[in-house]
Design goal:
2-enoyl-CoA Hydratase, Chain A, domain 1; alpha/beta; elongated; 17% strand; eight-stranded mixed beta sheet
Length: 516
């Protein structure tokens, strides 16, 4: 009996040594946590249950028969985050550089299958050089199995990826399919082909971080949604993201006690939005005074900043927030903003998070670059996402709502449930200057040259008074009320309570065909 337990203790010790003491020590010296330390940091203390610690590869070629390391370079299991169950895996870069082989993939696949059965989120702590070359097509097959499950689980349970080291080739496709990607600056990278391959093929010189670091993907490509400065910060941020999300698509988001804004916050709203339509301001000031204090978590803050998206709580209930940002590109919708917004709206709809939209949009960004880049198709993605969504949809028009962008930003016509406007709202086809130049071109041209500016100015003022207001839309029921800005939070809370049990039937179909 003692011999059996001695053997077990030895085996268990081997599973914890990863690629060996020297490699682990070097890894830690680089400022990183080991795979197990990452999981222990991520989960509530004492809740992690490991699965498959003794799994090894079955390959005998290329000398791998002498390198059979228990766990095969990935630690899998489940635990609790704020008392709720979550499945997670952490790749161990001290074992074959975290490269994925057949057995490595099988462990991840089994974990994902378990998450589907249990209806709980999957979190991947990624640190992998990609496919294990020695295993050839078996490694590629393993990736395919993981990708397939990413797709099957999409919209069923939340999937989050944390990039904690260099991830190349197949190692980046799985994170790209998941709902949110968190990257560690200066440490995590994502690219299909690394700097060496690029140099050999194109002659281009680029560093790994410039090619696929947190800022490259957070500010540029939009592949990443959040950035952190360390393993611990990234794991804490991932826990915070999960705090807004239901465990699966059949549940509602976890509610907490409501926290009221500071006294006077609602009264401050009136002065935040300038009545002059051309004066910029920061819409985050509005969002922060409407939702529960300190609860707004912005998603992709550095990517397409002309559109703000993120999670917040309204009277304790988690919601998805979408807002035009007048301090960037005047709040215009462009290609990247449309794609950013569409994906976020669809995520919220998939996981039963009500949508709260703040509108101040002068239209779609004009220009040949936008037109030739496909703004028609990409802008239609946001329109499609809002129209497709069946969660409660609440819209507040703060100031400008011009042209097709008015329709796209969760208008009543796209199925919004509760639409209100502030007295500063301007709902029209376009701004006064552009409209006057089109509608009254003849009158302006026929005026005496010395009087043209005065004529134009008078026409603009008349147009602003007659058309740039919320009342024509209110008369037709396109908005439900014109409200005092100070009433905004109270009105939205009441609407959210009413609409909480909302159910909306749509025609039966396999799936729609969003203009990808």
């Amino acid at each position: 009996m003692t011999g059996a337990f001695d053997r077990w203790e030895l085996k268990r010790q081997q599973t914890r040594e990863g690629g060996g003491k020297e490699r682990v020590a070097k890894f830690i010296a680089g400022g990183k946590l080991t795979a197990r330390q990452r999981l222990e940091t991520f989960f509530d203390p004492g809740t992690f249950v490991e699965t498959g610690p003794y799994v090894t590869h079955r390959v005998t070629t290329f000398g791998l028969s002498e390198r059979r390391i228990p766990g095969d370079g990935v630690v899998t299991g489940w635990g609790e985050v704020d008392g709720r169950a979550v499945c997670a895996f952490a790749q161990d870069a001290t074992v074959f550089g975290g490269a994925l082989g057949e057995a490595h993939a099988e462990k991840i696949v089994r974990l994902m299958d378990t998450a589907k059965k249990a209806g709980v989120p999957v979190v991947g702590l990624n640190d992998s050089g990609g496919a294990r070359i020695q295993e050839g097509v078996m490694s590629l097959g393993g990736y395919g199995e993981v990708f397939f499950r990413n797709v099957i689980l999409s919209g069923v349970v939340p999937q989050l990826s944390v990039i904690l080291g260099p991830c190349a080739g197949g190692a980046v496709y799985s994170p790209a399919i998941t709902d949110f990607v968190v990257m560690v600056r200066g440490q995590g990278q994502m690219f299909i082909t690394g700097p060496d391959v690029i140099r050999a093929v194109t002659g281009e010189e680029v560093t790994a971080d410039a090619l696929g670091g947190a800022d490259a993907h957070g500010l540029g490509s939009g592949v990443s949604h959040f950035a952190a400065n360390s393993d611990a910060e990234a794991l804490a941020l991932t826990r915070r993201i999960l705090s807004y999300l239901p465990l699966n698509n059949l549940e509602e988001g976890p509610a907490t006690a409501a926290v009221e804004p500071a006294a006077g916050a609602s009264a401050e709203l009136k002065g935040l939005v300038p009545e002059d339509a051309n004066t910029p301001y920061d819409v985050l000031g509005v969002v922060g005074r409407v939702v529960d204090p300190e609860t707004f978590l912005e998603v992709q803050a550095g990517h397409a900043p002309n559109l703000v998206v993120g999670f917040a709580r309204l009277a304790g209930r988690p919601v998805g927030v979408v807002a035009n940002q007048p301090s960037h590109l005047a709040g215009c919708l462009d290609i990247t903003a449309s794609m950013k917004g569409a994906r976020f709206v669809r995520f919220c709809d998939a996981f039963n998070l009500p949508l709260l939209t703040f509108v101040d949009v002068p239209g779609f960004l004009p220009g040949t670059q936008q037109e030739h880049g496909g703004i028609i198709r990409h802008g239609a993605k946001l329109l499609y996402a809002y129209a497709e969504a069946t969660v409660p949809k609440l819209t507040v028009i703060l100031r400008k709502a011009y042209g097709g962008a008015y329709d796209v930003m969760c208008s009543k016509h796209l199925g919004a449930d509760f639409n209100v406007a502030w007295p500063t709202a301007e709902i029209a086809v376009m701004g006064a200057e552009g409209a006057v130049n089109i509608l009254f071109r003849r009158e302006i041209d026929q005026a005496k040259p010395a009087e043209r500016d005065a004529v134009r100015k008078k026409l603009v003022q008349d147009y602003q008074t007659e058309f740039l207001n919320p009342y024509l839309a209110a008369e037709r029921g396109y908005i439900d009320d014109v409200i005092d800005p100070a009433e905004t939070r109270a009105k939205l809370v009441r609407a959210l309570v009413l609409l909480e049990p909302k159910r909306e039937d749509r025609p039966a179909r396999k799936h729609g065909n969003i203009p990808l």
